[in-house]
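INFO  loader      accepted 1 record
INFO  loader      residues=208
INFO  predictor   begin
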Amino acid sequence: MGRRITQRREELGLTREETAGRAGTDPGYLQYLEEQATALPSTNVLIRLADALETTVVALRGGDADLPPGVGRAAAHPELLELSDEECRARLSTHGVGRLAVDTPTGPVIVPLNYSVVDGVVCFRTAADSEPAASAGSRVAFEVDHIDEALSQGWSVLVRGLARLVTDPDTLRRLAELAYSGPWAGGERDTWVCVDPVGVTGRRIVVR
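INFO  predictor   done
INFO  writer      dumping tokens
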């Protein structure tokens, strides 16, 4: 639960003190909740925290972890906006989890994977015999998004480009050093593929 509280607080750009003030609790207690896996806050505290973080008690408890995103209803007055190139790249950030869309002999496949952005290029680690590795030399699409369940709004960024296999030892070493995390899927994933963007577009849903 602590990690989910921290993640949501950081998504909103709130300090621990600001969040505690919103929830009517002590910053030290909030730190305890965030850092101690055995912490068991009362339902009343959870309700106030969920309200302060613009989410739900179920989400903070992880009860929706096995559900697809976007199960809530649309907001009353949504507006769809185009993101600028600068806004798209800001949302791609330096790393995260996105989805690679590739063509295979049996049809299109979409694969979620960890990625890094290095010098404006999307790079990821995969297994040598995987579908993402086989995409090298082909045109691919890479998508990243974020859904705000509480407000029924969010954004998505689409990168289109040519996938290429990285073989230069110095580049491989640099990519490994800059990687924020190993692949969540684990296993032997030492093949690096980069997507050189030919187009970056994005959209955002805001609620007025």
